Amino acid sequence: RLRQLEDNDLPLHLKGRGTGNILYRLTMVLCLGGAIYSLYCLGWTSFPHKK
User: Fold this and answer.
1) What contacts 12, CB < 8 A, 6 or more positions away?
2) What does the pLDDT read at residue 22?
3) Contact 4, 16 (CB under 8 A)
4) Within 10 Å of residue 47's Cβ, how many Cβ atoms?
5) CB-CB contact of 23 with 13 (8 Å)
6) CATH superfamily placement of domain 2-46
7) Are 21 and 14 in contact (CB under 8 A)?
8) Does the predicted TM-score (pTM) go above 0.90?
9) Which residues cross the membrane (predicted)?
10) By three-state DSSP, how is residue 4 classified?
């Protein structure tokens, strides 16, 4: 518990154990993947399709 109170210029998600780091990276991957997918869908619907 004292490890989280130390001021060593680390972000909060890196002060814990490895699980915080893994969850942070998983969240970033999901957010970036969702943003890229939404841009792809927006681009796909912007152009007419052949029938």
Assistant:
1) 4
2) 87
3) yes
4) 6
5) yes
6) Cytochrome c oxidase, subunit VIIa (4.10.91.10)
7) yes
8) no
9) 22-42
10) helix
